[in-house]
Amino acid sequence: MHPALRFACAVLIPLLPAQGALAQDPAPPGGNLVVNGDFETGDLRGWTALRGEMVLVPAEAAGFAGVDPAALGAWTVTSAEGPEQEEIGQDVDLSAHAAEIDDDILSAGFSALVQTRRARGLIDHGAVSLVFLDAGGAALPGGITVRPSPTQDSVDWTAVDWSGPVPPGARTARIRFAAERASGASSDAFADAFSLVLEEPSSSAAPLR
Ligand SMILES: [Ca+2]
User: Fold this and answer.
1) Where are the domains of the chain?
2) What's the CA-to-centroid distance between 77 and ligand 1, angstroms?
3) Which of 204, 123, 208, 139 minimizes the C-alpha distance to 176?
4) Distance of CA 202 from the midpoint of ligand 1 (Å)
5) Which CATH architecture has domain 28-203?
6) What pTM did the predictor assign?
7) How far is the CA of 74 from the centre of ligand 1 (A)?
């Protein structure tokens, strides 16, 4: 072995945890399966425009009512001045975990932030949803839709937080953000901080990658 290579092996190999140690480690950071779920790339990469053409705005434009500003970062998505109904989405491919899903041993945690804005009694709705689909595209039990409908004028953020089993047969996690305008030239509905994490409850809840 070349002396330099021998040195590299001696230094690097002890840094790699043994297989057994890995399973008992606390949950590693990350594991979010949503691409660009926080929009901090400054664009909509990872997302598909399904209706209209949503845009990113500085988080200050959405305001910080009811949320820790750090959770929003620099950018947040909004429907702005396009059509009255706009939507973006992202389909997360779960097929790499098919065997565990069908053995009914995987659970999922889904979170996001959504803002529905009500002014002078008029509501621009924002709605966030997670739906599990089977290989044929049929919806399965589980998931969540959050579409806040404030009873008073509001610019508050709502936290979306769901966890539950991934239904056997699921191959796709379909994530959507939809906005509907009640009046005016722009839709004041916002979303940010999408996260989907898979967990195997029987192994210390370590997120799967
Ligand atoms: Ca953000």
Assistant:
1) 28-203
2) 8
3) 139
4) 32
5) Sandwich (2.60)
6) 0.82
7) 6
